[in-house]
Specification:
Elements: E1 5-6, E2 17-20, E3 30-35, E4 39-46, E5 49-54, H1 65-74, E6 79-87, H2 96-103, H3 108-117, E7 120-130, E8 133-134, H4 140-150, E9 157-159, H5 166-176, E10 180-185, E11 195-203, E12 207-216, E13 227-233, E14 239-245, H6 251-261, E15 265-266, E16 282-293, E17 296-297, E18 303-304, E19 307-311, H7 341-348, H8 363-372, E20 379-382, E21 385-388, E22 395-397, E23 408-409, H9 410-428, E24 433-437, E25 447-449, E26 462-467, E27 472-477, H10 482-490, E28 493-499, H11 519-523, E29 532-539, H12 556-575, E30 581-584, E31 590-595, H13 602-619, E32 624-625, H14 630-633, E33 637-640, E34 649-651, E35 667-668, H15 670-674, H16 697-701, H17 706-712
Parallel strand pairs: 2-11, 7-9, 32-33
Antiparallel strand pairs: 1-8, 3-10, 4-5, 4-6, 6-7, 7-8, 10-11, 12-13, 12-16, 13-14, 15-16, 16-19, 17-18, 20-21, 22-23, 24-25, 24-28, 26-27, 28-34, 29-31, 29-33, 30-31, 30-35
Length: about 725
């Protein structure tokens, strides 16, 4: 007698689903499969006939005739296979867009042409029924053994491999173009229709599927469509509001969305709670599903920085729950057993997270320092070092009555830097600095400083970098601890600007840390390999109060235009599979950066930035310029891609600026940018929100392969 228990051939089954996990892992009780980016399909083979059925119960057999035909030959018994259909793009990599295009075809001629243009493959990963026996009660490893014994792979029918190292497979899966990995407990049973912790999915981005309950109108060129209103079903089967998704759309997507939602309009909101209504909100029957990428969930259960990815017609809207298929509730990976020596060596050799700064003060130390500043003092003990302080009441920024802001003193600046140190220091670490000093406040003389002037305190670190223009080595100041940050403030440094590269090579194994001695050494050193690509957005929209020939002063219209350009740029980058981060410059503009692996020199990164900038400009020529001539910039936003040069710098994240009002260069999430105005972010108004975290953490730990993007043409 065969394995399993006898049963009549099931005519209908619902696939088992995986919960989300936070990170890949290793554990001998689990096996790991690559996560495929396609349509989940159950293949029913009965008496020589094949039916391909989606997880919503939709028939896909006619759309994929090659798969159906070849499945007839892989088994001589009645079987039910669980698997995924993927389509290949022109580059030979999995393409969900190509798959969606195929699924929308209707005529035999169109389908035949698509079979040649975008071949589809069915990857089997489970066997649920075989020759009159139910296999779903068998352990996963036994079902896999029977699957491999039953299926003979063909050109369009494949078997999914399973591996015992989830961490290594995760990295390989991303390199190959897959979404991530699925971890499956070896002894797990097949729980049809259930989302089980015995299966865990680990994806490289936070994405989730959400029910669409409405849409709002936009402004300007996007007047007919602004955002989708999305949510999920709770345990009481009521629809809960998750947020408005206002980015990630092009004109073709908007046209498709408007056509899809037209028959679903209803007079009242389908959501259980009161939803913040934007201009022109239209409510819909909750019958459509969108896949959305997002940064995180807010404490009040709203999506942070959501971006539309695609429609998911293959997903049942009633299946959308926050628990399980929405990664915000991702479970922690199971506790792994002790790693082998080789695994420990692999793990320990990786560079530490850049957010794990070795010299960050803890909360107790911060409270002690702030309390000490409440008392009269001439020295401050910081990190075991004594820093001499003087004239703490000296006004660095005069009062600004129209903002209701009092004068900002040296003491106020030091307090601010101490509060912000846990967020600010990781972004300063190992980066050569360009400093602007106003010892007498912003009404006095400004001094530029790049190199140490004299003997330095023991806690102030420096880096030696060869100067091609001088032909000699130069020393540059670094700020790798809080003591240095306080010391700079004491000396009247009101602006700290950082290079786009770091002198250390801990995350760039192919380059050297030594950047001194010669131009040849410099070219091969870490400082010549940036860890982000920069787009400096500078609006040339004038307030009308500027002096003749002066640069534009900060104004609302200019900043709003810079925000529009930033979102356009973000959408283009997202289309290239590149995630980006944004911050205010502290003046009139914005800085958009793309965190990248340090494998390409500044010259290559600058050319890439130029290509992207000019593409965005070509789509919005009335609003954007890349011209150097000031006359050509008037009324537009200037995208400066030429900032991607070794030795150039930008205002440090969270760093103040020497301008009236004591503004700071503030990292923001993309959602926060929507409503942001630079006047919000000043030394007197910025607070450290521990729950909010650092919107720029991805700049430190979210490095992406620009080299892979260039090689694939994405």
């Amino acid at each position: 007698m065969g394995k399993g228990t006898p049963e009549a051939f099931p005519t209908k089954l619902v696939p088992m689903a995986a919960q989300s996990a936070k990170a890949p892992f290793r554990d001998p009780a689990w096996l790991f499969e690559p996560k495929l980016d396609g349509y989940r399909i159950l293949a029913f083979l009965q008496r020589g006939a094949v039916s391909l059925v989606s997880r919503r119960g939709l028939a896909y057999t006619r759309m994929f005739p090659s798969i159906a035909a070849e499945l007839q030959s892989v088994s001589d018994a009645d079987c039910i296979f669980d698997g995924e259909i993927i389509a290949l793009g022109s580059d030979g990599r999995p393409s969900f867009n190509a798959l969606q295009n195929r699924a929308g075809l209707s005529t035999d001629g169109e389908i035949a042409a698509a079979e040649r243009r975008a071949p589809a493959l069915f990857f089997c990963f489970d066997l649920l029924h075989e020759a009159g026996r139910n296999l779903r009660g068998l352990p996963y490893v036994e079902r896999r053994r029977l699957l491999h014994a039953r299926v003979r792979p063909t050109a369009h029918v494949k078997l999914v491999d399973a591996h015992d190292d989830g961490v290594a497979l995760y990295a390989a899966a991303l390199d190959t173009g897959f979404e991530g990995v699925v971890a499956k407990r070896k002894l797990s049973l097949y729980q049809a229709g259930q989302r089980s912790p015995d299966w865990l999915k680990v994806k490289h981005t936070h994405t989730g599927e959400f029910v669409i309950g409405g849409f709002s109108k936009g402004k300007g060129q996007r007047e007919r469509f602004g955002s989708l209103v999305v949510g999920y079903w709770d345990d009481a089967d009521t629809l809960r509001y998750a947020g408005n998704v206002g980015s990630g759309y092009d004109e073709g997507t908007i046209a498709d969305l408007l056509a899809r939602v037209a028959p679903l309009v209803v007079p009242r909101s389908p959501f259980a709670e009161k939803v913040p209504v934007r201009a022109g909100t239209t409510w819909l029957r909750p019958e459509l599903v969108a896949e959305v990428a997002y940064a995180d969930w807010t404490p009040d259960a709203r999506l942070r920085a959501p971006v539309f990815v695609r429609m998911r017609g293959d997903v049942d809207p009633r299946s959308i729950r926050r628990g399980g298929n929405l990664p915000a509730d991702a479970v922690a990976p199971p506790r792994a057993v002790a790693a082998t020596a080789s695994q420990r060596a692999t793990t320990d050799s990786r560079p530490a997270s850049r957010t794990q700064h070795p010299n960050l003060p803890d909360a107790t130390e911060l409270r002690r320092l702030l309390a000490a500043l409440e008392q009269p003092l001439s020295t401050l003990e910081v990190g075991g070092h004594s820093i001499r302080l003087s004239n703490l009441q000296r006004v660095y920024w005069p009062e600004v009555p129209e903002l209701g802001q009092a004068a900002t003193s040296k003491l106020d600046l030091i307090r601010y830097l101490i509060r912000m140190a846990p967020l600010m220091l990781p972004h300063l670490r190992d980066r050569p600095l360009t400093l602007f000093r106003w010892p007498g406040g912003i009404g006095g003389r400004r001094m530029l400083q790049k190199h140490p002037e004299s003997a330095l305190p023991a806690y102030v670190e420096t880096a030696t970098v060869f100067s091609e223009t001088k032909g000699v080595d130069d020393a540059y100041l670094l700020c790798n601890n809080l003591a240095t940050l306080v010391w700079l403030a004491e000396r009247g440094v009101l602006e700290v600007h950082t290079w786009h590269s770091r002198v250390s090579a801990d995350d760039a194994p192919a380059v050297r840390s030594v950047s001194s001695g010669s131009a040849a050494e410099l070219a091969q050193s870490a400082v010549n390999f940036p860890d982000y690509m920069l787009f400096d957005l500078d609006p040339y929209i004038y307030s009308g109060s500027e002096r003749s020939g002066a640069e534009p002063e900060p104004n609302r219209e200019g900043f709003e235009q810079a925000k529009r350009v930033a979102f356009w740029l973000r959408d283009v980058l997202h289309g290239m599979a590149l995630e980006s981060s944004v911050k205010t410059s502290g003046k009139t503009g914005l800085h958009v950066v793309v965190p990248i692996e340090r494998t390409l020199s500044f010259d290559v990164v600058r050319r890439m930035a130029a290509m992207i900038s000019k593409h965005v400009m070509s789509e919005h020529a009335a609003a954007i310029t890349t011209e150097w001539s000031t006359a050509e910039r008037i009324g537009k936003v200037f995208i400066d891609f030429n900032m991607n040069v070794r030795g150039k710098s930008i205002s440090a994240p969270y760093g103040p600026r020497g301008l009236p009002g004591a503004p700071v260069s503030m990292p923001l999430s993309w959602r926060e940018l929507e409503d942001a105005q630079p006047v919000q972010f000043r030394i007197a108004t910025v607070n450290v929100d521990r729950k909010r975290g650092d919107p720029w953490s991805a700049v430190l730990d979210g490095k992406q392969s620009l080299e892979a993007t260039l090689s694939t043409g994405r």
